[in-house]
Design brief:
Strand order of the largest sheet: 1-2-4-3-5
Number of helices: 12
Number of strands: 5
Order of helices and strands: HHHEEEEHHHHHEHHHH
Radius of gyration: 24 Å
Shape: elongated
Length: 314
């Protein structure tokens, strides 16, 4: 009974913290940055915000709730599990199951579509250690498929439509997605799905595409080549939805396409600085002070948490 009661308490606090943090993030994420942030900085910040509810819930549960229960809860007590922690614990388990089921369903659907694309595919030479496969025109013009071992898929239609320079720039864009594991991040979004997060995830997707554009070009000529590739590939995109766990050069639904082309055409004005200095070290004193306060008040914090646990259980 002690172990079950502890599990119920931990799951209860986890789901409460997770739900509160997710709700707050879904409402306030639009105030997360200044206009001077680069696409890479924006995508990284949005990913961190998206992961914050899960990290917060795990930290509170493992660092405070569980130690408080193990340290202060009498093991000889025959106190039953109350209705509130039982319901919250079941809700937490349901959230876990729904998240993994959503991810598994999306993964299976993506695999089914990608396997259809790969029928008759021809392996090309590897680029930067990444497999390049030539696929039939019925597939996407240019995309990255796969999570653990991402592959770049290139259609015959794209090869016919793009010049050598345009194709090189487009492939560099897709390789940027591979190196940043963007398909894996999309799988994480499916596992941690929560109402109200779709707008944040859409802006993350747009920022990630622009960040990959920036990674693919180092001169105005390359920027114009990539812009031309985007325009040509956009004419090849079919109205069918792109699978969720793939990253296409031009997704079938992409609200940022015009903005991407405009940034590339005016690349000299929008080029991100190559010597951007991180200011994260400014946070070091505040983080050190917060850590000291946490350690100094840890005993009182555990006692207060145990009081909350007792209230919850009863």
């Amino acid at each position: 009974m002690f172990a079950l009661r502890g599990l119920a308490v931990c799951l209860s606090f986890f789901v409460v913290v997770y739900a509160i943090a997710s709700t707050l993030i879904s409402q306030v994420w639009r105030f997360r940055r200044g206009k001077s942030a680069t696409p890479q900085e924006t995508s990284t910040l949005l990913l961190n915000l998206r992961a914050l509810p899960l990290l917060s819930a795990a930290l509170v549960t493992l660092a405070i709730v569980l130690p408080s229960f193990l340290e202060l809860e009498p093991r000889t007590s025959a106190e039953p599990i109350g209705e509130i922690p039982a319901l919250l614990a079941l809700g937490c388990l349901g959230l876990f199951v729904a998240g993994f089921a959503n991810a598994l369903r999306t993964w299976r659907k993506t695999n089914r579509i990608v396997n259809g694309w790969l029928q008759g595919a021809i392996a090309e030479s590897r680029s930067e250690g990444v497999s390049l496969l030539r696929i039939r025109p019925a597939g996407p013009a240019l995309a990255v498929a796969g999570i653990c071992a991402p592959r770049v898929l290139l259609s015959e239609a794209a090869v016919a439509a793009l010049s050598e320079a345009e194709l090189k720039a487009a492939l560099k864009h897709e390789l940027a997605h591979v190196h940043r594991r963007d398909n894996l991040k999309k799988l994480f979004f499916r596992i941690t799905a929560f109402p109200g997060m779709s707008a944040l995830e859409m802006e993350w997707s747009d920022a990630t595409e622009m960040a990959a554009d920036d990674a693919a070009v180092s001169s105005s000529a390359e920027a114009l080549d990539l812009a031309a590739a985007l325009i040509k590939i956009s004419r090849l995109v079919t109205p069918r939805e792109t699978p969720a766990l793939t990253t296409a050069l031009v997704p079938s639904v992409n609200s940022a396409l015009n903005a991407r082309i405009e940034r590339l055409v005016t690349w000299e004005q929008h080029r991100p600085s190559k010597n951007v200095t991180s200011h994260s070290w400014y946070l070091a004193p505040a983080l050190l002070a917060a850590t000291f306060c946490f350690v100094a008040s840890y005993g009182a914090l555990l006692a207060r948490m145990h009081q909350m646990t007792e209230w919850l259980v009863r």
